[in-house]
């Protein structure tokens, strides 16, 4: 479903992704961890072309993104993204936030889009906030709206970039629960997170990345018990003991 | 004391000037808003040649006096067999000049919208133009309204230099009346009052709109 082959990415002189080879299959839940600045977000953002790769081959959902002639808007219909800071549209209500892309991109009718939006709002457990503005919601509620907004496009893949790290501790659970439910339904998910409980419980694989290189690609239990890489071991002991 | 007979005896001319100033301002306002928005998007769009065009326009136009732009259009264009009336040349000059300032105000407004908004919109499949129109511009407009209002007020006041091409606007009528009656002070007081009739409501309107928008957040 997602396939990186010898992918490199530079920001000017900075080599942010270094020879990435990674394959993610349909229905897999993959968690990406690594130190700050290691390139986790960049790796994730390449998967929906918020960043373009400098070298190598990248295929996502049957589309070769490294080709020059991809229809990027068509491609993005099938890939949802959830951001650390939610990025809801502050001037639109919850419902309008969720309906915008289905109406403008999928050309759904307003009624149809509204029905879908309400369905997903119910699913993430905040149906009663449909007419509220983002500023009237808690962080956890905002992030659940953001997830509903992604799901309303009925995507094949969902990308999450540290979805809980801007949240107060007591709100992390409600967002992770929504993500767990999604994983159980078989959604293909790539999640940058340091929530180790989530990773252990839900992830099929854990990718450890440092200085733009994948140093470990392992089964979660295997990874927690015995990381092969020295830096991974160090990193793990640090986040587990904080 | 102020000589009100100057006003009553020349009321037709004052009124004609007032209406012409309104007309010039209105046309230039619409024109400069449209042109300014296009230029702002040129400067921001992820297309290099458009960035250059936008930058060159803004930096050239806002750094030369309006009077010179007006001279160029009124006396320079006839060299290329393009002859415009003072009214048309003046409106064009005002529009071209004000657009540069409006472009900067709108650009600043767009840039003040957090980057994540564009990213969220684009990653949901919206095109750049759709994201601009449905997500970015509605948020930018709130920030842009006060500086935009000031530009429109400047535009009305700047229209007074159109008198040198005999555009028939307020300042020009004032000059005519003054040279005919040999009264200066009183005439220009009345001229000033007519300008205030346009600019004061604009100014108050902008203030009020600004407050309303601030509350809606
Ligand atoms: N647009 C950019 N231009 C230049 N450098 C960038 C850009 N985006 C990211 N970088 C740099 O690339 C490196 C990797 O960034 P990235 O955001 O992928 O890291 P990360 O692993 O997600 O870190 P964090 O845990 O802090 O979110 C960082 O050193 C960052 O400063
Ligand atoms: Mg990051």
Automatic annotation (TrEMBL), chain A:
Gene3D superfamilies: P-loop containing nucleotide triphosphate hydrolases (3.40.50.300). Pfam families: ABC_tran (PF00005). Residues 2-236 form the ABC transporter domain. It comes from the Bacteria. Keywords: ATP-binding, Nucleotide-binding, Transport. It comes from Ureibacillus yapensis. This is Amino acid ABC transporter ATP-binding protein. GO terms for molecular function: ABC-type amino acid transporter activity; ATP binding; ATP hydrolysis activity. Belongs to the ABC transporter superfamily.
UniProtKB/TrEMBL annotation, chain B:
One of its GO terms (cellular component) is ATP-binding cassette (ABC) transporter complex. One of its GO terms (molecular function) is transmembrane transporter activity. The keyword Electron transport does not apply. Residues 18-206 form the ABC transmembrane type-1 domain. The chain crosses the membrane at residues 20-42, 63-80, 86-110, 131-149, 187-206. InterPro entries: AA_ABC_transptr_permease_3TM, ArtM/GltK/GlnP/TcyL/YhdX-like, MetI-like, MetI-like_sf. Keywords: Amino-acid transport, Cell membrane, Membrane, Transmembrane, Transmembrane helix, Transport. It is a multi-pass membrane protein. Its main location: membrane. It holds the Pfam family BPD_transp_1. NCBIfam families: HEQRo_perm_3TM (TIGR01726). Belongs to the binding-protein-dependent transport system permease family. This is Amino acid ABC transporter permease. It comes from Ureibacillus yapensis.
């Amino acid at each position: 479903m997602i396939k990186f082959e010898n992918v490199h990415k530079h920001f000017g002189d900075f080599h942010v992704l270094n020879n990435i080879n990674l394959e993610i299959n349909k229905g897999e839940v993959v968690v990406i961890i690594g130190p700050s600045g290691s390139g986790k977000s960049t790796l994730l953002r390449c998967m929906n072309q918020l960043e373009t790769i400098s070298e190598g081959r990248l295929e996502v959902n049957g589309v070769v993104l490294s080709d020059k002639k991809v229809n990027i808007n068509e491609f993005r219909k099938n890939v949802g993204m959830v951001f650390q800071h939610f990025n809801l549209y502050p001037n639109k209500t919850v419902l309008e936030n969720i309906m915008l892309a289905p109406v403008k991109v999928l050309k759904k009718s307003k009624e149809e889009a509204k029905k879908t939006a309400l369905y997903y709002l119910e699913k993430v457990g905040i149906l009663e906030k449909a007419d509220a503005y983002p500023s009237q919601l808690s962080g956890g509620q905002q992030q659940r709206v953001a997830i509903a907004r992604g799901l309303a496009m009925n995507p094949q893949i969902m990308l999450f970039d540290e979805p809980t790290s801007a949240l107060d501790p007591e709100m992390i659970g409600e967002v992770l629960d929504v993500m767990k439910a999604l994983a159980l339904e078989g959604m293909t998910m790539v999640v940058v997170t340091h929530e180790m409980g989530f990773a252990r419980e839900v992830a099929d694989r854990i990718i450890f990345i440092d200085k733009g290189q994948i140093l470990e690609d392992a089964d979660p239990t295997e990874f927690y018990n015995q990381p092969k890489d020295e830096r991974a071991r160090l990193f793990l002991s640090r986040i587990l003991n904080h | 004391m102020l000589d009100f007979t100057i006003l009553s005896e020349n009321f037709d001319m004052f009124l004609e000037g007032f209406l012409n100033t309104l007309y010039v301002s209105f046309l230039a306002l619409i024109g400069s808003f449209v042109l300014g928005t296009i230029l702002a998007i040129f400067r921001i769009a992820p297309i290099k040649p458009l960035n250059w065009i936008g930058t060159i326009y803004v930096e050239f136009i806002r750094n030369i006096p309006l009077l010179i732009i007006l001279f160029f259009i009124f006396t320079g264009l006839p060299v290329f067999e393009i002859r415009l009336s003072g009214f048309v040349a003046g409106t064009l000059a005002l529009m071209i000049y004000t657009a540069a300032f409006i472009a900067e105000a709108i650009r600043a407004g767009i840039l003040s919208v957090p980057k994540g908004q564009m990213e969220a919109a684009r990653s949901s499949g919206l095109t750049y133009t759709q994201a601009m129109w449905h997500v970015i511009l509605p948020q930018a407009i709130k920030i842009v309204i006060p500086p935009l209002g000031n530009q429109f007020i400047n535009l009305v006041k700047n229209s007074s230099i159109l008198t040198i091409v005999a555009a028939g606007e307020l300042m020009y009528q004032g000059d005519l009346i003054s040279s005919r009656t040999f009264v200066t002070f009183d005439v220009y007081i009345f001229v000033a009052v007519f300008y205030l009739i346009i600019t004061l409501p604009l100014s108050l309107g902008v203030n009020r709109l600004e407050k309303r928008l601030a509350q809606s957040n």
